[in-house]
Design brief:
Layout: E1 4-6, E2 8-9, E3 19-20, E4 60-61, E5 68-69, H1 90-130, H2 139-162, E6 165-192, E7 200-241, E8 246-298, E9 314-327, E10 332-335, H3 337-340, E11 348-354, E12 357-361
Parallel strand pairs: 10-12
Antiparallel strand pairs: 1-8, 2-3, 4-5, 6-8, 6-9, 6-11, 7-8, 9-10, 11-12
Bound molecules: zinc ion (2 copies).
């Protein structure tokens, strides 16, 4: 049980403040404290001289004259009415008052909001009338609209360029280019951890393939270890309202810790890096290697690949080909061979074109 503090209350009728909590009636006007009173602490050191005689129970509110009475009394000390089922104690009465206040605050807020909205609307209408009905959107909206418009234009342009379209082309000239890779069967010097088929003239050498960690020994080392050590209590004080003009002092204790460091020794395993040896092969081997490319080109309608003299040490590799026409304006259009072979200089054609390439002709 904590110590008991004598609190205060203010008289609602004559305005006297800091009336001692152990007085039921105002020393100035003589009226009893009533349901609108709130007890408070003015001096936390004002301890009750005889705490055993102080009640731990809250006052009750007389249902007839609203005055506060001590819990030990069964009839009102002001009007003589009996304490009955309808009487509330100090705390029940206080929470009812607080609920009423919260409700009033909410209603006022709603009313203010409604009034503010109405004022804003009428101001808006006035501004609109003043500007002669020419409504201009806020600046930020206009910037956003502009950005969206530019984005849409860029997308439209990309789509527009990619759409295949019909064109009339006057063919001024045709062209082609064909390339063939020439490969030679060549002796190569190589080395590897695995010996491939066909290797010859082989030399073997033991070489370092990699490293592995091998445990060597333990080393004794020290390190700092943190420890939480109890360091006494932190105390704080709070007050419990007894609802009868008095308060109970409550001491709260929370344990406090400090961090202490000490060093301890431990065994650290030490590893060494040991090389792993393997057999590496050095050898000669025959490989097909790109030697060069043969390119042929022309403006006629008879494309051909350069002739490669194939033998046991020479062969053809990859082949590439491309075909095009140039129109009267000097623009070049590519085409697949199957389309290109039907075209010749002097022709006027209707063709479907996409990104500089002829897709089909009519
Ligand atoms: Zn008074
Ligand atoms: Zn009464």
């Amino acid at each position: 049980m904590g110590r008991i503090i004598v609190g205060c209350w203010d008289c609602q009728y004559c305005g006297t403040c800091r009336i001692s909590g152990d007085l039921r009636e105002c020393p100035n006007c003589g009226r009893p404290r009533d349901e609108n009173v709130t007890f408070y602490i003015a001096d936390p050191a004002n301890y009750a001289k005889d705490p055993d005689k102080v009640s731990r129970e809250a006052d009750w509110v007389c249902a007839y004259c609203d005055s506060l009475n001590p819990a030990s009394q069964t009839i009102c000390q002001s009007c003589g009415a009996a304490r009955d089922k309808e009487t509330q104690d100090y705390f029940q009465n206080k929470s009812r008052r607080e609920q009423q206040e919260a409700e009033r605050a909410r209603q006022k807020q709603e009313a203010d909001a409604a009034a503010g909205k109405a004022a804003k609307n009428s101001a808006g209408r006035a501004a609109k009338n003043a500007s002669g009905d020419s409504y201009s959107p806020p600046k930020r909206k206009r910037v956003r609209f502009l950005v969206l418009a530019i984005l849409a234009a860029v997308i439209a342009l990309i789509v527009f360029l990619g759409i295949p379209r019909q064109k009339t082309l006057e063919i001024a000239s045709c062209g082609w280019e064909r390339t063939v890779e020439v490969q030679l069967y060549t002796e190569m010097e190589e080395s590897s951890w695995e010996l491939p088929d066909g290797a010859y003239d082989i030399t073997r050498r033991s070489e370092i393939y990699g490293y592995e960690s091998v445990f060597d020994h333990y080393e004794t080392r020290t390190r700092q270890v943190a420890e939480q050590v109890f360091d006494g209590y932190d105390t704080s004080v709070s007050y419990r309202d007894l609802g009868n003009g008095h308060f109970e002092e409550i001491e709260n204790r929370t344990p406090r810790y400090r961090t202490e460091y000490h060093s301890e020794t431990y065994q650290e395993p030490i590893y060494r890096q040991e090389p792993i040896y393997r057999t590496k092969y050095y050898y000669l081997i025959m490989r097909w290697i790109t030697d060069h490319y043969e390119t042929t080109t022309g403006e006629d309608s008879e494309p051909y690949f350069a002739a490669v003299e194939v033998s046991s040490v020479c062969r053809e590799g990859a082949k590439t080909e491309s075909y095009w026409i140039v129109d009267a304006e000097g623009k070049t259009y590519k085409a697949e061979y199957e389309i290109w072979k039907n075209l010749s200089a002097g022709q006027k054609i209707r063709a479907k074109v996409q990104l500089g390439k002829i897709l089909e002709i009519e």
